[in-house]
Structure formats: C-alpha cells, structure tokens
What we know:
Blueprint: H1 3-29, E1 45-51, E2 68-75, E3 82-84, E4 96-98, H2 104-140
Antiparallel strand pairs: 1-2, 3-4
Helix pairs in contact: 1-2
Amino acid sequence: MSLDNILGVAGGAMDAQVIRMNLAVSNIANAEVSGNSSETAYKAKRPVFETILASEVSGRRGEVEGGVRVKSIIEDSSTTPATYEPNHPQADENGYIYSSNVNPMNELVEMTAAARSFESNIEAMNTAKQLMMRTVEMLKK
C-alpha cells in the first residue's frame, strides 16, 4: 500500500467517525423526545460501516480500496419504554407515553470511541507524512 493510499484510508475513516459522532450527539439531543406509540417515539440512529472493495472505488469521492465508508444509517431496534401518564398530552388511548430508546451513557461511550478512532487515524496520517518527509530528505542527499 502506498503512502498516498494510507492517507486516503485514514481520511475516509475520519469522515466515517465524524458521522458516527454526529449521530451520537443527535441521539443525546433527542433523548427526551417521546411519542404516543413506539413507532413515533425517537429511536437512536446508528451508522453501518462497510469496507470499500476495489470494484467499488469512487474516485470522485476520494475513496481508496481498503478504506471504510458509512453504508447506511439505521434506527436502533431496541424497545421504547412505555410510561403510564394518562394526563400527558401525548398519551395514547390507554394512557401510555413512549420514551425514546436512547441511553445517554451508551451515546457517551460511542462518542468516546469515535473520538479515539479519529485520533488514531490522525496518528496514521502523521506517521505517513513523516515517512514521506524522510524519503524526500533521503533523496535530497
């Protein structure tokens, strides 16, 4: 793998981690959004990553074989808790409101993992940059 490809793989991974972090932040922001059914209550969003194969490389997006991208964003399928509050304006006919399935602690873990992965990719890019600079210095001699 060339040093240029290393930069492309790390850059694509950083893009994917930014999406992951943005989804975690959005989930936290919507953690208190409830609904009158489990379908209308906010559901946490999760990114689905995929490896970029040689036949799938898109040069216009700057993708590199072996890199990663976000394939899709899915809703977390875990159950939404129901609370009996018959006087709540969003209560269903049985008096229940449905809270979001967002667990703020899990979202903080997601954010931390995304930040660490982002930092690891920065280190990979810095190492590739240092190798390129050393190569140029050696060629000058």
